[in-house]
Inverse folding.
């Protein structure tokens, strides 16, 4: 037995006007009645008149071609209902030929897996694995266990500068933040004016379902992306052309506003730990406190105080320089450029031995995200 190679022929589709799903059925009359009368498909054609064996039906953007045969084709047909919920009386049903008819919401509710916090250290070196992602992007997974599937953090590179083979799309997420670590990219967002360039140190908050597109990247583009939940849908929207010609910075998308933070315009303020200062990225204000993000650097001799947090998620990514991270349960670690760490709630930790050139990105998730002093006693 030999494996059949896939046909690589590229067909001329210029003359194609529509498409049909062909379904073979043994009981033609019963299946025609089911799809027409029970599911509401419209009968467009049937033949022959004296003993029908073929029919074409249409509905909900789909065309079905029923044909009588000696065997049944069993398929799964999903009907998308308007809204964000499926009524309880819309359970899956079965057609006479055994096909399964499912019902799904047009905009399904985002399911958030239970948070499984864990200390995760990711070091950037020559052995770091990079995977191939969407639109030719290279991905480094910063939280392999995804905190139980609740969060994902990725270090993303675009190796070749120039136009990016992206398309207008959106994501079904709780939140999604992108920080430009190195290089630059030209982006465009729904109702946010003309395309703009995001440079190293800049950050965008992509609210849920905002349409957007990466148009172009400079040499050596690298970004850090953090989103919730870890597994979420990316959906194309070929019906919308960007830019839209509108500029509405106050527009809400699922309760959040778009943010484009520019590092060159930022102001620095004292951070919650003595000896540090931070530039706030504007994320907390745009998400009503759901998450916050800031870039932190030392401004004097940092405090030796140890802290703990009580939020869902705390993530640090070193942008330059280095520091020492002391933890009660996970030891002592030296973090340098490109290293990152996820610190679980209630884990006592301290930042020390900071280089003067240190800068790191901090992202926190949780209501108010209180921090409190703690006693750091490293385990033997």
């Amino acid at each position: 037995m030999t494996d059949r190679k896939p046909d690589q022929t590229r067909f001329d589709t210029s003359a194609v006007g529509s498409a049909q799903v062909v379904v073979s059925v043994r009981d033609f009359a019963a299946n025609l009645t089911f799809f027409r009368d029970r599911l509401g498909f419209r009968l467009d054609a049937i033949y022959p008149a004296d003993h029908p064996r073929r029919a074409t039906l249409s509905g909900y953007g789909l065309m079905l071609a029923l044909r009588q045969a000696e065997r049944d084709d069993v398929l799964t047909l999903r009907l998308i209902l308007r809204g964000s919920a499926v009524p309880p009386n819309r359970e899956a049903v079965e057609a006479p030929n055994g096909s399964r008819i499912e019902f799904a919401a047009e905009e399904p509710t985002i399911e958030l897996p239970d948070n499984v916090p864990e200390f995760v250290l990711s070091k950037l070196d020559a052995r770091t694995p990079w995977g191939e992602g969407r639109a030719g992007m290279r991905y480094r997974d910063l939280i392999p266990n995804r905190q139980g599937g609740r969060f994902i953090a990725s270090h993303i590179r675009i190796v070749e500068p120039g136009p990016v083979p992206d398309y207008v799309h959106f994501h079904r997420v709780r939140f999604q933040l992108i920080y430009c670590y190195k290089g630059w990219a030209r982006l465009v967002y729904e109702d946010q004016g003309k395309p703009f360039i995001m440079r190293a140190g800049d950050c965008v908050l992509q609210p849920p379902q905002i349409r957007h597109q990466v148009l172009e990247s400079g040499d050596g583009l690298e970004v850090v992306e953090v989103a919730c939940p870890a597994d979420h849908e990316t959906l194309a929207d070929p019906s919308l052309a960007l830019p839209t010609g509108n500029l509405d910075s106050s527009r809400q998308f699922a309760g959040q506003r778009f943010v484009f933070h520019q590092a060159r315009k930022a102001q620095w303020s004292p951070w919650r730990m003595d000896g540090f200062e931070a530039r706030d990225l504007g994320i907390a204000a745009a998400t009503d406190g759901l998450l916050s993000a800031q870039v932190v650097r030392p401004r004097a001799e940092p405090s030796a105080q140890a802290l703990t947090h009580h939020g869902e998620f705390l993530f640090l990514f070193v942008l330059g320089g280095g520091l020492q991270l002391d933890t009660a349960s996970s030891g002592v670690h030296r973090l340098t450029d490109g290293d990152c760490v996820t610190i679980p709630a209630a884990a006592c930790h301290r930042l020390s031995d900071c280089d003067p050139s240190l800068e790191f990105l901090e992202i926190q998730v949780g209501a108010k995200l209180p921090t409190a002093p703690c006693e750091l006693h490293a385990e033997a």
In short: The chain has three domains: 21-105, 128-255, 265-373. The longest helix spans residues 28-38. The helical segments are 28-38, 283-286. DSSP finds two helices and 34 strands in the chain.
